[in-house]
Amino acid sequence: MLMTTTNKFEGSEIQQYLGIITGEAILGANIFKDFFAGIRDIVGGRSASYEKELQEARRIAFSELEEKAAQLGANAIIGIDIDYETIGDTGSMLMVSVTGTAVVI
Fold first, then answer.
1. Which residues face 78 on adjacent strands?
2. Cα atoms in the Cβ-side hemisphere of radius 13 Å centred on 2
3. pTM for the full model?
4. Which pLDDT tens digit goes with each residue over 61-78?
5. In whole angstroms, what is the distance from residue 47 CA to residue 38 CA?
6. Spatial distance between the Cα atoms of 57 and 62, rounded to a whole number of angstroms
7. Cβ 67 vs Cβ 54: under 8 Å
8. What is the pLDDT of residues 88-98, one digit of tens each?
């Protein structure tokens, strides 16, 4: 599956627009990751545990996006937009939402 954040693929013509599709992933961070990330906030540095969670959420969201495009008969996704949010009462959950347009090129 070809994917791009732009609205076209250079050198390819879009034959059919199949619709807007989305992929989402919501992952909760556990108490230990929250605790150690809090320490990182105080002393500085990167939080590897949160980075891994973010990478996993993004992987899941893109996988879901690709699956939905394939179900529609698309061979490409254009105009991809990635959004990151924290949700929940304490902001302890991470949401990654990926949106794009499924097309046939």
1. 101
2. 14
3. 0.78
4. 999 999 999 999 999 999
5. 9
6. 9
7. no
8. 777 677 889 99
